[in-house]
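Q&A log
Question type: sequence-to-structure
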Amino acid sequence: MPISTISQAGLDAPISLTSPTLTTPNINSAQIPTVSGTAPLYMARAWVNFNGTGTVAIRASGNVSSITDNGTGDYTINFTTAMSDANYSSVVSGGNKPNGYTVGTSEASAPTSSSFRVLNSYAGVGVQDATYVFAAVFR
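Response status: OK
Response body:
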């Protein structure tokens, strides 16, 4: 701990100086103002944008530590910080525009507090890897 000396009224007195620590406050839906209406706001607890082809790679994410490639069009999304239970809602979409499939149906299944699986399929084509997979989790 650094020590400095301050001179006041002819007296030298040692004082301790420390660097302040910045902490991130916890924010809950009650602290966020609702612009219109009285329904509470619930923000995403996790989200991810990843490439599901070849070597699966996260482009950007929040509270997602990794993606597990379980096979063609089958992925597990792993949370950095687990949910309190598996009773959350996930919203998933995908697309494979370079191959001509513009809309994919992504289904989330087998949720746990630490991860959930996504299966990406296209009508008339079946299960396929997706160039773009997007997921958000709300709890």
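Response note: The chain has a mean pLDDT of 79.
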